[in-house]
């Protein structure tokens, strides 16, 4: 038979029924004395079904649970109890209206006895407890969403980090890894979770656990990260990767974890090795440069922007009193310009050297080069070049003793002058010899009775005189490798016109560019012109010969043209098959100078065009003054 409920005010029941929480009242035997409407809706048990019954008989799954133990403790000791859903998952089987499991917290409070007498209170027969059930599903879900959002942001940051991040337990077993780690080591997370982290480390890598244990204590219950160390890693395919490892230990829910950040430093190590190699090469280059400068006989110094000496080579440092170059005796730290300003030189050109150096130091510009002579008649060449990229700026200065070079140059000029004199004398004698031969032929011609034979002798004399004119031009010129062919052509035509009887017999017009030809081209081309003009005069017909001679430069070609108004040549004329000595001579000489011969003949006259490539320039010999030749 159910116990009789004590009478209660109506408003108290209304208040308990209106609460947004579950309220139930248990007696000392855990029988349910009150079960409000909130509990009926959440548990699907009505008050009629459960009132008067043992709570843990009605809900047998809760017997001997934390809830059951807490209720007994409260009834026995009078101490309240609090059960949280996070630590006590086995609470009331409650559901939300939509059928989802309700997440709730439970508070158990003892109720004082209603008896007023001390005797009744001591008996303790009226021990009861009040159980309050609070729905925390919404707040838990909200916290879960916030936690998931926070975790998502954390995962996004960690997964997009440029370094591999791996978390292990204290045994070194992989618990988690970010996306960079999967790409860096070419493993999927499910292939590594639960395996030892040594799979990712090289054979020479330090012990993962030992490194974590040696990390110093930090704040907030975490161990401070160890100093980064460099080690080698191992990818899935066995290839090695250079890494920099930073580690930290941390705790969560009573468990310890180790997180390592593995940065790929392959490129950094390669760059470092390249820099080390480059630095070594630079040191070697600097040593080689210093050794080279020390081996040079020149006096070399490096000046900063203010003109102070910052370095000198061995020759400068060991220069004796016999060397009197500008600045001799200066040492590192001295003001070079001030030191040289106190000295005296035998040649005022030394002042221009210093002025150019001052300009170079103050304003920059192209390198300075000058020569000067000292009191003891030693010649020096001063070279100064800017060093804008150097650590001191300024310039590098070099004094070279060129006294011996100057003596050799004077000797060479003297030899060149003597050679020039000899060449002039040779050309003069060749011209005289050819004129002598020409005179002998003239005398021989006068003694010949046969007119046909005399003509051949006259042709031979004309050819010899053409060659003699070349040597005469060389004798008269300052240079002996080339002659100005236009002037030579004018003289040749004037001589041929006089020899042919003057204006009554021929009219020769010459037009020529100013062109220097080497002798090995001028002599053959002069003979060709002589033959063509002589033939035009000889075969002029009944009236005076009219001959036009031109010599032009056309781009990279030279053209000699001889035109006459004579009867012309046969239409089938071939210079290569001609039996005439003059034509054969023209063909042969043209071949010597790689010239082509083009003939245009018609009843009004004939035009010969001799075309040849422009010859290479011949280096000119330097002429010397008579004083230099005499020494």
From TrEMBL:
Domain PAC: 227-277
Annotated PROSITE patterns: HIS_KIN, PAC, PAS
Domain PAS, chain residue ranges per copy: 150-196
Domain Histidine kinase span(s) in chain numbering: 425-616
Pfam families: HATPase_c, HisKA_2, PAS_4, PAS_9
Gene3D superfamilies the UniProt entry points to: Histidine kinase-like ATPase, C-terminal domain, PAS domain
Protein name per Swiss-Prot or TrEMBL: PAS domain S-box protein
Organism field: Azospirillum lipoferum
């Amino acid at each position: 038979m159910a116990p009789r409920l004590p009478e209660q005010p109506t408003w108290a029941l209304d208040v308990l029924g209106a609460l947004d929480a579950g309220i139930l009242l248990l007696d000392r035997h855990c029988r349910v004395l009150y079960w409000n409407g909130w509990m009926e809706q959440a548990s699907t048990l009505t008050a009629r079904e459960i009132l008067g019954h043992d709570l843990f008989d009605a809900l047998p799954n809760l017997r001997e649970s934390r809830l059951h133990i807490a209720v007994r403790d409260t009834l026995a000791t009078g101490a309240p109890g609090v059960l949280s859903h996070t630590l006590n998952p086995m609470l009331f089987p409650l559901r939300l209206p939509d059928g989802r499991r309700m997440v709730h917290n439970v508070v158990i409070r003892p109720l004082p006895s209603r008896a007023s007498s001390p005797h009744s209170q001591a008996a303790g027969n009226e021990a009861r407890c009040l159980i309050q059930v609070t729905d925390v599903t919404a707040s838990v879900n909200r916290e879960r969403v916030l936690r998931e959002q926070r975790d998502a942001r954390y995962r996004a940051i960690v997964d997009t980090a440029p370094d591999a991040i791996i978390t292990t337990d204290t045994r070194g077993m992989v618990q988690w890894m970010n996306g960079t780690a999967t790409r860096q080591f070419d493993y999927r997370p499910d292939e590594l979770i639960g395996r030892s982290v040594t799979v990712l480390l090289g054979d020479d890598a330090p012990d993962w656990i030992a490194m974590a244990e040696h990390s110093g204590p930090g704040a907030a219950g975490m161990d401070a990260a160890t100093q980064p160390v460099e080690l080698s890693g191992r990818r899935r395919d066995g290839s090695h990767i250079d890494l920099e490892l930073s580690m930290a230990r941390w705790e969560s829910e009573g468990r310890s974890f180790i997180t390592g950040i593995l940065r790929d430093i392959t490129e950094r190590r390669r760059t470092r090795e390249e820099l080390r190699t480059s630095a070594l090469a630079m040191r070697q280059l600097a040593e080689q440069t210093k050794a080279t400068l020390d081996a040079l006989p020149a006096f070399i110094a490096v000046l900063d922007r203010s003109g102070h000496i910052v370095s000198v080579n061995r020759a400068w440092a060991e220069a004796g009193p016999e060397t009197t170059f500008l600045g001799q005796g200066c040492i590192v730290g001295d003001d070079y310009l001030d030191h040289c300003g106190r000295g005296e030189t035998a040649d005022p050109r030394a002042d221009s050297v210093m002025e150019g150096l001052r300009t170079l130091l103050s304003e920059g510009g192209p390198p300075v080069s000058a020569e000067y002579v000292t009191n003891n008649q030693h010649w020096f060449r001063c070279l100064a070049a800017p060093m804008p990229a150097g650590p001191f700026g300024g310039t590098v200065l070099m004094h070279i003793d060129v006294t011996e070079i100057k003596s050799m140059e004077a000797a060479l000029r003297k030899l060149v002058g003597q050679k020039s004199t000899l060449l002039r004398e040779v050309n003069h004698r060749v011209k005289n010899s050819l004129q002598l031969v020409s005179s002998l032929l003239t005398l021989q011609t006068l003694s010949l009775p046969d007119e046909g034979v005399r003509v051949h002798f006259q042709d031979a004399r004309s050819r010899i005189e053409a060659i003699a004119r070349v040597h005469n031009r060389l004798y008269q010129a300052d240079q002996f490798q080339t002659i100005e062919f236009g002037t030579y052509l004018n003289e040749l035509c004037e001589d041929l016109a006089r020899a042919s009887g003057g204006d009554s017999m021929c009219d020769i017009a010459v037009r020529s560019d100013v062109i220097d030809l080497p002798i090995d081209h001028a002599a053959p081309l002069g003979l060709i012109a002589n033959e063509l003009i002589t033939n035009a005069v000889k075969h002029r017909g009944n009236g005076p010969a009219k001959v036009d001679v031109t010599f032009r430069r056309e781009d990279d070609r030279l053209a000699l043209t001889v035109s006459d108004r004579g009867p012309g040549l046969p239409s089938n004329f071939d210079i290569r098959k001609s039996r005439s000595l003059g034509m054969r001579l023209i063909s042969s000489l043209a071949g010597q100078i790689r010239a082509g011969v083009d003939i245009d003949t018609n009843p009004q006259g004939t035009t010969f065009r001799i075309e040849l490539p422009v010859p290479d320039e011949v280096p000119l010999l330097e002429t010397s003054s008579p004083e230099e030749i005499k020494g």
